[in-house]
Write a structure and sequence with these properties.
The complex is a heterotrimer of chains A (291), B (253) and C (319). Chain A has eleven helices and two strands. With 291 residues, chain A is mainly alpha-helical. Chain A has one domain. Chain A has a two-stranded antiparallel sheet. The model of chain A has no long low-confidence stretch (mean pLDDT 81). Chain B is of the alpha/beta class and 253 residues long. In chain B, strand 4 and strand 5 form a beta hairpin. Chain B is globular and about 55 Å long. The chains are: A mainly alpha (291), B alpha/beta (253), C mainly alpha (319). Chains A and C meet through helix 3, helix 4, helix 9 and helix 11 of A and helix 4, helix 5, helix 10 and helix 12 of C.
């Protein structure tokens, strides 16, 4: 009886962690669309780049914390670079071209990563401070590193909500999501806000990439897995809705977590079934725009 | 006079705000009925509700006695209601001929047919030519619709609406953005093409309204303030109050 | 004189295609067979993108469905007619198109494209996981030595590259003609009007959902046929035939050749096959180079090479 509870508890936590990771990546993706009408297939590539950068920095410095600090910043810069150089050019030509371009960029990045690092998964060891397990209650222990992921991602989420609701930047961002022409007319530097969102979104994806390293492995398939989860999340939650992305991410995390244990043969397609249901009943996502 | 369309206690909420706030409206068979009112009063929303683009939050919409609230747009089209759009909504990258043909083919119910070639459908070509004549667009039939001057795009917009041979025609600000000369042309066209049919028209241009309408409904804050003949509206103190300050309403006509 | 330009071009191309096996060696014949198969795949994609404006990132799923269906039938029923196996592949593609299409129907363009990635991957995941049926990662192999009976002409070996080429050519030409006729039907016209203005089409009284569903079925059928033909050529199948990269390939071919008319996809397939051949002969990073070329094309000439030709012809005629 006790072990069943602990198993379920463990699954819920695992789903929570995975859900938060997805949310870190999906939030940037959905904001870029809601605000700037940009569909960026390559956003999940930034996540993968973050993971590989983490590996590389650890190779050079043997210090996880430097990686955690530096890699996301680099990812943020990469995100801004992609937007300025590539996406801007193609945005005017319409959604089709934008989707095609970012898809192409994502494919190329995946190929480059395979070229430089090969296709085998690369291990990243958990930093010494975060090794081991802590007791939760009775004789149940929980790995410290996982607790770290949870704490870190929740902190980031909390900061995000704080920034969005309380700071001037946050208000500008929310105004731009609603109606960026109006925000422009009212004096907001929309261009700057765009750049900030792009950079922050990519930074978040980079953070996710770094913290996932020791948790799962680092390999070129990370892109494919994450882009799918991102899609499901924004499709279910609604493009442009952060709240929807959060709910959907947590939902997807739980489904993955429980699915693998209880319905292993169809766990892969459970997510798609969820998507299908949402599409049939609410084509713009649970929290998406109306009609 | 039998009524062909009735809105009974209709409400529409958007995110909590009541855009349509309990409307009762009745349109008689064969009449020309105008909807006027300040901007944002809900006139276009009423059209959207009737044609199924928006769903009704509460209330009923009866067309020929049958409740059509909740039906999808294409089904409502089949029942005999067609609308034009305030912002020109034609097939911009197709030719004028193709635009009209789309509507004619749709009217005959052949839109999903795969057992013939569209060039071979009997009678379609003739009907398309005929309609092009009626809306005076025969000379430009090979032009792309998006390249036409505004007045002609409007004519095409109206043409697509009447091509469906509807019993109830809804025209949403058909003279928006037009010069007085263009407006006169369009009114002539509307009169010609809606003979014998029931017409509902949303308009801001009062000359057009008083020229065409048999009865006028004044919409304000999502409600129907009053429905009356043009003469009665002119004398109505409440209506004058609603329009106070608006230069488009001139009491000295 | 000008009136017969396109007719004479068509005639010349047909003549070249028919006499091709006698002009070139085995290797180029093999490549041309591949090009013809991919052309059908691309044309089925064109019906979605070029004709109706729907960008699908999971089109390889139907190609794969056709391929798996055909090879499974041929492996488990050794005496089945080739033609039944091919048509069955098309039918499975059609079913896949309709079933997935049902879930994609009400999605507007952006959500539609995103969803196609997911559903494409779903089919891949099923092919990959269902080892007992599909052989999983290892795939399935068709043993050679099959004979095909053509009425009035006798028996032929499927291994015979000449025969295979003509068989595939005939089926493909028939497919092209059907697809072309499809665009000229009222449904084809309705789909074009959906691309132009889906909203207005609905207000004309057209059930755009049913129209799209029929399109998905039709497009899926021919994608499946191309998958079946692929099996005849390669005699093996693996989940790689329906993964994201395969879906990307058909997109690359469409962009290379342009996707505003029928000719573009065919030219795109031709360029693609020879480009890959050429690139992979001197580097194993050819996928990377191909991706870079693709990105450059999108940035600088999104109408593909047919588009460049068209605009240079227009420029010349304006002088």
């Amino acid at each position: 009886m006790e072990t069943q509870l602990t198993i379920i508890f463990g699954l819920i936590l695992h789903g929570l962690i995975y859900g938060m990771l997805i949310f870190l990546v999906a939030s940037g993706f959905t904001l870029a669309f809601g605000m700037m009408d940009i569909l960026n297939f390559a956003h999940a590539s930034v996540y993968m780049i973050g993971a590989f950068l983490c590996y590389q920095i650890i190779q050079w410095t043997s210090n996880y914390w430097i990686a955690l600090l530096v890699a996301p910043v680099l990812c943020g810069l990469i995100g801004i670079f992609m937007e300025r150089i590539f996406i801007r050019k193609v945005h005017a030509a319409g959604h089709v071209n934008e989707l095609l371009l970012t898809f192409g960029i994502a494919m190329v990045i995946t190929e480059v990563v395979k070229w430089v690092y090969g296709t085998a998964p690369l291990p990243i060891s958990v930093p010494p401070i975060l090794r081991g397990s802590i007791p939760i209650f009775r004789d149940v222990t929980f790995p410290v590193y996982r607790a770290f992921i949870l704490v870190l991602s929740c902190t980031v989420l909390f900061l995000m909500v704080l920034i969005l609701k309380k700071t001037k930047l946050g208000i500008s961002i929310r105004a731009c999501v609603q109606d960026n022409e109006m925000a422009n007319a009212l004096g907001t530097n929309v261009s700057l806000v765009f750049m900030t969102v792009m950079g922050l979104g990519s930074w978040l994806a980079g953070v996710a990439g770094v913290i996932v390293g020791p948790y799962l492995t680092v390999n070129p398939d990370m892109y494919a897995q994450m882009i799918l989860d991102c899609f499901v999340v924004v499709a279910v939650g609604g493009l442009g809705s952060l709240g929807g992305a959060l709910v959907a991410s947590l939902l997807v995390g739980q489904i993955q977590s429980f699915g693998i244990i209880f319905l292993p043969r169809i766990s892969l397609i459970l997510i798609y079934l969820l998507m299908a249901l949402v599409f049939v009943f609410k084509p713009t996502g649970l929290f998406g725009e109306k009609e | 006079m039998t009524s062909i369309l009735q809105l009974i206690d209709v409400y529409k909420y958007f995110d909590g705000s009541k855009v349509i706030n309990g409307i009762d409206l009745s349109v008689s068979l064969g009449e020309k009925h105008a909807l006027i009112g300040p901007n944002g009063a809900g006139k276009s929303t009423i059209f959207n509700l009737i044609t199924g683009r928006y769903s009704v939050s509460r209330g009923r919409i009866l067309f020929k006695g049958r409740n059509i609230a909740g039906l999808p747009p294409h089904k409502i089209s089949h029942l005999g209601i067609a609308r034009s759009f305030q912002i020109i909504n034609v097939f911009k990258d197709m030719t004028v001929f193709e635009n009209v043909r789309n509507a004619i083919v749709a009217r005959h119910g052949h839109s999903l047919s795969i057992f013939s070639l569209i060039g071979n459908l009997r009678g379609i070509r003739e009907e398309t030519d005929c309609l092009l004549e009626r809306i005076h667009l025969t000379p430009v039939q090979r032009e792309l619709a998006g390249t036409l001057p505004y007045g002609q795009q409007r004519a095409l917009e109206i043409g697509l609406t009447i091509a469906l041979d509807p019993e109830l025609i809804l025209l949403d600000e058909p003279t928006a953005g037009m010069t007085p000369g263009e407006t006169r042309e369009v009114i002539k066209l509307i009169r010609e093409t809606t003979q014998g049919k029931t017409l509902m028209i949303v308009e801001h241009d009062m000359e057009v309204v008083f020229d065409l309408a048999d009865r006028i409904s004044v919409i304000h804050l999502g409600k129907n303030v009053t429905t009356a003949t043009p003469e009665e509206i002119r004398q109505n103190v409440t209506v004058k109050g609603i329009y106070l300050g608006s230069s488009s309403y001139c009491p000295e006509i | 004189m000008r009136r017969y330009l396109s007719e004479s071009v068509v005639f010349l191309v047909l003549a070249a295609l028919v006499s091709y096996p006698y002009i070139v060696g085995k290797f180029h014949l093999y490549l041309m067979t591949e090009i013809i198969i991919f052309s059908i795949f691309c044309i089925s994609f064109y019906l979605l993108l070029g004709h109706t404006g729907l960008l699908s990132f999971g089109h390889a799923a139907y190609f794969g469905l056709g391929a798996y269906c055909t090879i499974l039938l041929l492996v488990h029923f050794p005496h089945i007619s080739i033609f039944i196996a091919i048509v069955a592949g098309g039918i499975l593609g059609l079913l896949g198109g309709v079933i997935i299409g049902l879930m994609l129907l009400r999605l507007t363009r952006v959500y539609f494209s995103l969803a196609t990635v997911a559903f494409g991957q779903m089919i891949w995941a099923i092919a990959w996981k269902w080892r007992s049926l599909t052989g999983g990662d290892d795939g399935l192999v068709l043993k050679s030595g099959r004979k095909v009976f053509i009425p009035l002409l006798g028996h032929f070996e499927l291994n015979n590259p000449f025969f295979l080429y003509y068989l595939i050519l005939v089926i493909s030409l028939a497919s092209v003609i059907f697809c072309w006729l499809f665009t000229k039907t009222p449904l084809g016209n309705t789909l074009a009007s959906i691309k132009s203005n889906a909203n207005r089409t609905q207000f004309l009284g057209v059930n755009i959902y049913l129209a799209k569903l029929m399109l998905f079925g039709f497009s899926g059928f021919f994608a499946g046929i191309s998958g079946s033909l692929y099996i005849l050529l390669e005699r093996m199948v693996s989940p790689g035939l329906l993964d994201m990269f395969m879906s990307f390939d058909v997109i690359i071919m469409s962009v290379l050749g342009g996707y505003s008319n029928f000719v573009g996809p065919v030219i795109g397939s031709f360029i693609y096959v020879y480009l890959v051949e050429y690139l992979s002969s001197f580097t194993d990073k050819w996928q990377l180079i191909l991706g870079a070329i693709f990105i450059a094309l999108i940035l600088f000439c999104p109408n593909g090479l047919v588009g460049i030709l068209k605009s240079s012809i227009i420029k010349r005629s304006m002088r």
